[in-house]
Amino acid sequence: MSMNPHGGRVLEWLREGKEGIDLSANLNPLGPPEILRRRWPDLFAALSLYPPLDPRFVGRLLEAIYGFPQEAILPCNGATQGIYLLGRALSGKIVVIVEPCFTEYARAFRLGGKEIRRLLVFPEPPPNPLEALRGADIVVLGNPGNPLGDTEGLALYFQAREEGLSTVFVVDEAFQEFLGEETSLVFRVFSDRNLYIVRSLTKYFALAGLRGGFVVTHPENAAFLLDHLEPWSVNTVLVRALELFASEDLSPFREATQRWLLEEKAFLEREFSALPFLSFFPSRANFYTLWTEKEDPEFFSFLEQKGIFVRRLGDFFGLGGRFFRVAVRTRRENERFLEAVREYGGAR
């Protein structure tokens, strides 16, 4: 059995008899939107229906929800399928990943026969990061980055284009909705043929079990990628859920999410600053990376004993056993984590 390090292992934890709060997966605790809760029984009939094969069917729904032109959208079975699709379909040999970055990119492009190079920009960026991109066929970066929640990669993208580099950029925007679309590169895909945006439906709308995501790119690129995509890559229950979202005014859901996130981030940052043996890194997203003053496996065992699951970051390039990530959750969940940290700190 593969010991995959990803967070969100709730079903496996329950099988092992563990229960608690999951801070390892960065999902919106307010979602899914209320219309899906009300109409959930109506979706039962969708289990016996094949999903649509025409990507425009789902593309029109996503256009209604996001405002992105549907001809630039390729729906996928979660952002992860989009990542592996790009890994095998994009041409070129050398891939530079701006690190730390979501770990599946390195695996996907390696399986696609690419040579992986790393540009580590944490904790301090190199003096001339653009030099590391020269000679690369593909550059991968996060916007916002995972696990740091920063948007520093945007500057590198714009600098590369200003310098005339036509390198393909793959930009992970799985958490962009939590920031708003102002920092998104989505609408540049029509003027930049070498830009591919990976988006997720599972984080903001809390649909992890339905596996929804999409790639946004120039329409000609989207048509090319479709030839490499497996059929029935979006399940019918998700399609029905998107139909509900597309028929609804989602502004109350978005406004509630924004209020919750601003309030809880302000609360957490204030509390983080007072913790005795932990430090945090500023984040614009719905999660934070923290680090302990020394590597301490007993700390993470203590959290699990308290029923608190966090995402350890030792598998991220450039990080190690002192680093971990926590999602921003409800006030009660956030307080439980803080109480456990204080208890451990007081007992040391």
From TrEMBL:
Its cofactor is pyridoxal 5'-phosphate. Pfam families: Aminotran_1_2. InterPro entries: Aminotransferase_I/II_large, PyrdxlP-dep_Trfase, PyrdxlP-dep_Trfase_major, PyrdxlP-dep_Trfase_small. Residues 19-341 form the Aminotransferase class I/classII large domain. GO terms for molecular function: pyridoxal phosphate binding; transaminase activity. Keywords: Aminotransferase, Pyridoxal phosphate, Transferase. This is Aminotransferase class I/II-fold pyridoxal phosphate-dependent enzyme.
